[in-house]
Amino acid sequence: MTRAEVSKGRIQRFLTDENNYTSDGTYIDPESRNFPQTRSCARCRSYKYRLYHPGRLLYPMKQTVKRGDLSGFKRITWEQALEGIAKKHKAVLDKYGVDGIYSIYAWGAATGQFQGASGGPLGAGGAGGAGGAALRYMGGAQSSYFGSYSTHQYRYFGVKYTGADENVNVNSVAKHANNVVFWGDNTPSTVNPSSYGNIRAIEDMKKRNPAAQAYYVGPEFSDGGVVMADNWIVSKPFTDPALIAGMIYHMLENTFDLTTGQIKSEPWLDVNYLDTMVYGFFDSPEYGLNDTSGEIDASPSHAGDRVVPAVPAGRSYCSWILGNNDSAQTYSALGASGNYTAARFAADADMKRWAPCSYEVKGVSGGAGSDYLTKQDYRTPKTPEWASAITGVPVETIKKLAEVYALNGPVTSTWSGGQQKQADGIANLFALQSLHVVTKNVGKKGAGVIWHITPSVIKDSGALKIKVDHPDVARFPNMEKALASCTAWHTVIKMAFAKELADNGYIAKYIPNYQKGTDTTDSVYWDDGGTKTFIKWKRNPDTGAIETYSDGGDTFYKWDGYDEGLPPVVSGIRLMYNTGGNIFINQHENSNDSKEMLEYLNLDDGSADTFCLVSFDNFMSPTVRWSDYVLPAATSWEQQDIMAPTNGTDFYIPQVITPPGESKPTWDFANELLKTYEKVDPSASGAARDFTGGVADKPVEAFVRDAFREACATPESPFYGMKWEEFIQKPFLPAKADDYTVPVPARMAFMDNYISADKTLPFVKPAVEGYYADTNEITDGGYGNEFSNTDGAPKSPRRFQTYSPVLVWQYENKFSKWHGYLQSGQRGQRHKDIEGDRFVIEIPVYYAYQDYFMEAYGGKDNLNDLSFLLTTTHDRYRSHSSMAENPMLRELTHRVPGRDAKGNYRQANDYNDYSMPPSQAFAVNEGGVIPELNRTIGEGGEVTAENKDIASYSEIWINDTDGRELIGLEDGDLVQVENPIGAVRCVARLTKRCARGFVGLHQGCWYDPRTIDGKLVDVGGNCNTLMASQPSRIDHGNGQQSAMVKITKVNY
Amino acid sequence: MRMAFYFDQSRCMGCNSCTVACKDWYNVNPGPVRYRKHNTYETDGAGAFYSFVMSCNHCENPACMAACGAGAITKRSDGIVTVDRSKCQDLRSCITACPFSEPGIADDKQEPLSQDTWKVSHPMQKCNMCVELQDKGELPICVRACPAHAIEVGDYDELMRNHPGAEALTIDKYPYAWTNNGDTSTGPSLIVKPRKSLTISGPNK
Asked: If A132 and its partner were Cys, which of A141, A142, A747, A920 is the partner (CB 3.0–4.6 Å)?
């Protein structure tokens, strides 16, 4: 939490939360690991330099020449802007329906309920005070998408495919864990409010158990590693599933004699547990499970209610790990130890627990000759030696880490946003969860696998209940909308404007075709992820619901024209609202392609058939620069809003200072846009009034006063009896530290005694909540679970899973309900690689990273000179790409090439050059100027003498030895980093905090292209200039942590 | 009384909240002067990375004070070393003398406005342990800012007693603190709780 010190209408400085009292008034131990003081980090502390930055946008502008051309901006009035946007909105609605309008994922003021981007009035809707409401009043045009740019893979996969537990917080670690493994975790940089709790959790764990250790696994030793780790296991990026496979192989060779298949005397793995509680670690027959009695039956008659699919010979996780091993004993030979499941299998359908890996290679089980390394390795034993060659981790370390998980639990693991945001991020999550499942690091206090270790606090329940009633909203129902990944908009625009782009000479990376089915030879993976749902749908005029039709037992959505026998019309995305976001150019993969696409799309002419990007923001960020409309936005301190801090209740922040120029709060922008829209569309009459709660122009604070009036009259409320003036001085209720212990699901009673207990109990006990391993079940679910027919869907085994037929079925059939316009057999998602084999299989294999890059970069020959693997973690001095303009923080991340006379860094001080005075601004037609950001680097990449001490570049982290010996660099040299997707320039920071062969370019620098030797080179150092467009496997998300690059020194 | 800083290296995550909060509080614009400086040090072959942040160490025998020909630097009875910017004559001897690179001189960009009492356009400035706050009974800004609770101020001996495992700043254990010269005679008033060693397995060398 941040406090501003204001005098003379200006914020002079910032202070932090220094509260020492909980919400009920008791004193807090300042050294508690849950201490709820939320102390600001450097970003808030330097916010002054953002607020008073001379680069702030001050008035609306419209692009008149070509997107991206600064001289083409014409200054317009707010009235002109609002009228143009409202008319455009109406035109698109009339011709293409609500699906043609989209509010892009944006995070400008994310936690603000009234002013935020994604959840604000012009966002995607959902919870909160105002979410999506304004667009909903404009014909029901609020956006819908699934996933998130931060955690797309996690949101898709969750923990329900494996049943692994997430029961982790600072207390569970401090009190119960014996080891913690950070898989690339960067929490102290990324999630500041969790940082102290993380540090203290580890500190207290080691105080309790001096043998306890913290491990950090990953290629870049983050600040979290520096402060918390006892061990750094230096590994190559993208290879965690290989490391985990090598570890489990070592556990298997300490469990079984891999020559005879016999169990060893002191096995590392509990085979009875694996048989009973884990589906698909071993091969197993199809069986029926009686949902009432819990009995299982593997005989051909399957007496059970629930048919659980077989894990065919050679298909289990164990079979893949052992590769070609054929020494397994049958269930009958080894299953006589009172193990109910093994006994049933042995009696009904005996088989071996593992067999040589039998997944197809070029259509043949156990085949050969693939270009994909993943498939070449199917039958290779995944020994620690194999894993070491792939990951770079020494064999002994792999064995040691295996021992930690198998013998020295409870183990807590954290994955990181970066680990999952990779081309095969879902496989990373699947493998890590499987490791926990296999080693029984589930269902125990101190064991679990989670994103990051969070504080354990109780928020006061008596907070204000602030709400906006939206009268008459029934006129504008919450419509089902085209549903695609939040990262798929790029493809949808290309789909809508395919002909225009081709006619205008866009050098297509790939222009998709909505008519391509899943199985046509030239369809590609890009087409999926929901992009083919952007059709003009046939809707019920009263409810907005999309009408359906049935065909052969399948249910499909009707498109507009279905009843008339007409083909569907692609709505695509025609009008895009971007409120406080920089996704389009900067934060989406492949910035060059986004730029080119926007330049080749015709400028907005107000009609439904030109694309239009409306940006409402604080600065001329790259996305704003390439927009049609540029609208100036207020920041948090310049508007009224409700914020939701981690360590306290939601609270009201009043407006502190006046917004500069003509910039507006989102609330006002939305209100005024609605008023304008009412003139364009008389049927929307009253929309603006209804948007502000039925009272015209009602400000945000009035809603807070309403809620406060109720609270101060309620005896149970902490605000009881308070006056508004008192409340406004102390609006924040800090949370209380929570000493609670981790809840343990009821099923976990069987983690240790399942073998002696009733053998039916591990499977069914409906009366006890949380009894089953909580794994996915496919149902005919509602909106968002978009299957035309779920009859053939596999059933959940109601156990932990390391093998998931549900994952594969869901992947193949997703969106099929929207695909009625395609031929039978062409619906759902493409599931073939270029050799005709399945793209997604049931187990957490290691998908060799070269396989993704081979496809993403146009062939395996294109990887030959790309010696380095690159990922892009959060930088603690930016919030994604916000603050990239803040000079107080830029000086911490940017450097002038070279070193000074004493050999020190030449820290960049481009303050005056980055924050230009008006004399160095570009003129806007019709008057006014906008300071153009960083112009110290010339159009051809040259730096003139007067700028040579200030022109600065982002740092890129390169391993010290690699830099010196392989590239010939000294620390501070200027480098060009490139691949078939793009090129950036950075200053090399040579460090031992990187693995050999790895480079780290922190995300969020602003894309700033120059043409150098005929090639686009981004001197801003934006990581996404290097990221391929190909989506991540399975979830069609952003594999934005994945690049292969070459690095060369640049003379400076 | 010997006022000193306590720094818990085992908690410092290198976030620069203290250094930025300090600049914000004292209106030190972006530029070369930074009262507190953070770095994560890598020593050749050593199995660890050391997060380290330091401002003025308010030494027992301040080399800067001894070197200053203008009498601009003084040590208070509680040990806090302050500079009177009005007396500074830009001789820069303090900059040469301080082993820890603490005294700073701004440039025109960082400090566009001069004060009437100054004799030179950019007199030396440095950390004064927030004396004006401490004299009012408040804690220094860096202490209040640290999200990791890794900084304290107080009497040297008392801090040492309160933090078992903490140790004096010495050049053999913390060579990277001596960024300017190797003068070990100043008696820095900084106590450090060290980060424990790190085992590295894998290819980073």
From this structure: A142
pTM for the model stands at 0.95
Task: Indicate yes or no: CB of B144 within 8 angstroms of CB of A909.
Answer: no
CB atoms within 10 A of CB A700: 28
Backbone angles phi, psi at A613, to 5 degrees: -110, 120
Read off the tokens for A726: 């008192």
Work out the minimum CA distance from B104 to partner chain A, whole angstroms: 15
Tens-place pLDDT, residues A505-539: 997 666 777 777 666 666 666 778 999 999 999 99
Task: Identify which has the larger pLDDT, A405 or A134.
Answer: A405
* Segment B57-94, tens digit of pLDDT: 999 999 999 999 999 999 999 999 999 999 999 999 99
Q: Where are the domains of chain A?
A: 61-150+468-535+570-705, 156-243+398-458, 248-376, 859-1049
Strand pairing report for B190-193 and B3-8 = parallel
pLDDT mean over A849-856: 93
Between A668 and A781, the higher pLDDT residue? A668
pLDDT in tens, A554-600: 999 999 999 999 999 999 999 999 998 999 999 999 999 999 999 99
Structure tokens at A372: 């994909």
The contact set of B with A (CB < 8 A) is 10-17, 19-21, 23-25, 27, 29-32, 40, 42, 49, 51, 109-110, 144-149, 195-196, 198-205
Looking at chain A from residue 929 to 988, which residues have their Cβ under 8 Å from any Cβ of chain B? 959-961
**What gap in Å lies between CA A460 and CA A717, rounded to an integer?**
9
Q: Which two tokens stand for residue A377?
A: 């390795």
Measured in whole angstroms, the distance separating CA B134 from the mean position of its chain's CA atoms is 17
Q: How many CB pairs under 8 A join A and B?
A: 159
Q: Which of residues 211-270 of A touch B (CB under 8 A)?
A: 221, 223-224, 226-227, 229-235
Burial of B78 (0-12, 13-18, 19+ CB in 10 A): middle
Nearest-Cα distance to chain B for A967, in Å, is: 15
CATH number belonging to domain A61-150+468-535+570-705? 3.40.50.740
Architecture of domain B3-193: 2-Layer Sandwich (3.30)
Q: Which residue of A has its CA nearest to B14?
A: A223
> What residue spans define the domains of chain B?
3-193
